[in-house]
Amino acid sequence: MMPDLGLVDARFGRIWSEEERSYVVSTLAAAGYTFYHYSPKADRALRRDWRQPHSAEQTAMLGRLSAQVRATGMRFGIALTPVGSTHPFDDQARADLARRVADLDAIGVDDLAIFFDDLRGDMPDLAARQAEVVNFCAGLTKATSVYTCPTYYADDRILDVVFGERPANYLADLGRLLAPDVQVYWTGEEVCSRAIGPAHLARVARELGRKVCLWDNYPVNDGARMSRFLHLRALTGRDPANAVHISGHALNPAVQAHLSCIPALTLPMLYRQGEDYAYGAAFNDASRHLLGDDFAARLQDDVLLFQDIGHERLGARAERLRDRYAGIDHPAARDILRWLKGDDIMTDEEVQTQ
User: Fold this and answer.
1) What are the tens digits of pLDDT across the range 240-299?
2) Structure pTM?
């Protein structure tokens, strides 16, 4: 069984160029993906400055993106993170939300998402206020589907450490109060889950009162720690039997657009092949399809260095890698060279200001 597959472009770090995003859209559409949700943390008009409209230039770019995504047959969505709208959810918040939802509708969205991830959660009646905001937006939008991401979007206790202790019965209350057709993103037992299985998903569905849409934090590599690695290997630890327990499965991509497509192509393979899926063979197939035999063979030899050793421990091997990929005329090779140079390495300060 093949679930609804998508990309939730919701990471920290630099925003992809139009050329990069266009490549990702066309590549994933050809592989069978069905939706693309745009919500990079660095887009301030969707997050910290959400009450302000996008500039004319940004609006035109999003219009072009919407047209391209829809032309491939995929659904296009935009996610708004309305910081400060829940407490208080007053007349001003309602007016600002109504205006911004109208702005996004005018761009052209099939899916509207309202996100509360990475926001403080130790506030009174959190689930009720968040559900009220989502339901309000759902009643206004022309989009045919509405998604949300809770503040506590995983079982992982690190969320309680960073954003405050989660309220008792938060997930059950949120599910009970949200409109029945709102889809809820969920990352699993951890923020970056090493494994996701049917038993966990069935338990969350019972608690929430609906199937979740998986927000799979792979191959994402944002933040001060993860940006020092390139996540290239095929998907592992995702049970094909998950398909009956979810409404969809979306990957959160890496900073490197072209390289992200290698593991992204293995997601439909996982569901299509079921018990016959082998992640090594899937990586070989995806990388050869996208890069050609020679480039893919080089990358296979160096996966350990990129994904496990990491930027800071490469030492003298960094120069060899630069020489090894400098002669390849391919955007994915330029992704690697940019990373080796340190251009995509992030700091804690960069994350905290997005």
Assistant:
1) 999 999 999 999 999 999 999 999 999 999 999 999 999 999 999 999 999 999 999 999
2) 0.97
Alpha helices in 118-256, H assignment, sequence order: 126-138, 158-163, 170-177, 198-208, 223-226
> Burial, 184: exposed, middle or buried (Cβ in 10 Å; 0-12, 13-18, 19+)?
buried
| Closest to 185 (Cα-Cα) out of 4, 1, 8, 3 | 8
Q: How far apart are CA 57 and CA 115, in angstroms?
A: 24
Position 124 confidence tier, pLDDT thresholds 50, 70, 90: very high
pLDDT in tens, 38-87: 999 999 999 999 999 999 999 999 999 999 999 999 999 999 999 999 99
| Amino acid, single-letter form, for residue 24 | V
Is residue 299 within 8 Å of 232, Cβ to Cβ? yes
Domain boundaries defined on the chain: 5-283
CATH number of 5-283: 3.20.20.80
**Hey, what are 14's tokens?**
């630099």
Residue 108's Cβ-side half-sphere holds a number of Cα atoms within 13 Å equal to 16
- How far apart CA 119 and CA 81 sit, in angstroms, is 9
Longest dimension (CA), the chain: 60
Q: Tokens 């949700």 identify what position?
A: 37
Is 95 exposed, middle or buried, given 0-12, 13-18 or 19+ CB atoms closer than 10 A?
Answer: exposed
Cα gap 282→286, rounded to integer Å? 6
Rounded to whole angstroms, how far apart are CA atoms 249 and 242? 9
Least Cα distance to 262 among 295, 227, 215, 309 occurs for 295
